[in-house]
Amino acid sequence: MTDFSFSLLTGETGPLVKGARPDRLRVPLQGHRPVLAEGDQVLAGTLIAEAGDDRGDMHAPLAGTIRAVDRFAMLIETTDDGRAEPQAAPSEGGDILRRWLRSMGIDVRPLRRAPVLIVNAVPPEPGISIHDPLLRDYRKTVDLGLDTARRVIDHSRLFLVAARGNRANAFADCTVVHVPPVYPNGLDPLVVRAVTGGETLPGRHPDNAVILSVRDLYFIGRVMETGRPVTQTVMTIAGQNRLVHVGTPAGFLVAEAGGGVEDGDHVILGGLMRGIPALNIDQGVDKDTTGLHILSKTRAFVPVDGPCLGCGECERRCPARIMPGMISRCAEFKQFARTETFHIHSCIECGICGYWCKARRPLLQYIRLAKYELALLRSAIVPADTPANDQGRSRPADTRPEKNDA
Ligand code: SF4
Ligand code: SF4
After folding, report:
1. How far apart are alpha carbons 190 and 197 in whole angstroms?
2. pTM for the structure as a whole
3. Could you give the CA distance from residue 340 to residue 296 in angstroms, rounded to a whole number?
4. Nearest atom within ligand 2 for CA of residue 328
5. β-pairing, 174-179 with 157-163?
6. Class of the CATH-defined domain 102-225
7. Domain ranges across the chain
8. CA of residue 350 to ligand 1 center, whole Å
9. Which residues are within 8 A (CB) of 217 and not within 5 positions of it... i.e. 6 or more apart?
10. For position 39, what pLDDT does the model report?
């Protein structure tokens, strides 16, 4: 276990620092279909990949030449300036504005009509303070983002949720709700529960409310101000908040922050509880990356694939009140459909269970694996005569070797 604070208090934060221009960008393409190929030239803002859903199209963050494309990422060798022409925002609201925002790289999945709009200003994880400089120094942009979102959502009540003790100036006509400044209170399902009292499954939208972060509003406001697509993210790196080009390699950011990575260190994209370890230091950040941490090999808490001790510690700590130990056992033995009987979809992916696990099992990773496999099963085209799985649901036969049950 590493030294770790669950506090979401951010204290005094400095101004937002603009990240430098890397020589190469590796733009993640998950959920997108590339529309350009190796050898093509791009300007900053050129459309490079279309989204398969409402998560927003992808545009080149900087001018350059595409050097490689695969299904995971597009490698762009950057050159000096060169920007695509700005586009005028539509004067209409509703679906027309929503479609335009989507084409400008905004994830519009949360943007739909609802009676309640919740602005989440609580830090998503300890050590991440991205909302503070946006609320303090870019208030006009955030306000414009809020006005724009309102033209789509058409809500009647507005709430701002902040961690008690952190600075968060209210918007006009909004009700401020404070939550204790302790992780995981900034995660969307818990913020929605703090306002509406209702519980929402992760990845699903609450029926009666829309939740947007301060960061979401900032990028919507930027698109409206500039007429240029979203090609950056805001990240906390070594306590400093930075505006970073999407696709900037993790190693470049580490060097820019004055750090270094040695063999065996872990580079975490995101927060320490929910972040994803970078595959290598060339991996580029995406639009949702909010932080970067380095865990040195001497301090890193390395999970092991040991057996569950049945101690119940993970259940006692789980804010979703489910049984992470049982879910992990099902996932470990590829009984993915069975994880649903233990309410896997109620997991908000906070990572707290894995933090406290006595056996150091990678519980969050098992849960994410099971959710991924369940999504694959659901999306598979299943012939009518396919044998039923362990819950009576049809699915393709799994031909991979099974682990022996314990
Ligand atoms: S990650 Fe673990 S502790 Fe958090 S909600 Fe999911 S099962 Fe519960
Ligand atoms: S904390 Fe770890 S060892 Fe204990 S029941 Fe949960 S998964 Fe098993």
Report:
1. 9
2. 0.89
3. 36
4. 7
5. parallel
6. alpha beta
7. 102-225, 304-406
8. 5
9. 119, 142, 145, 146, 149
10. 97
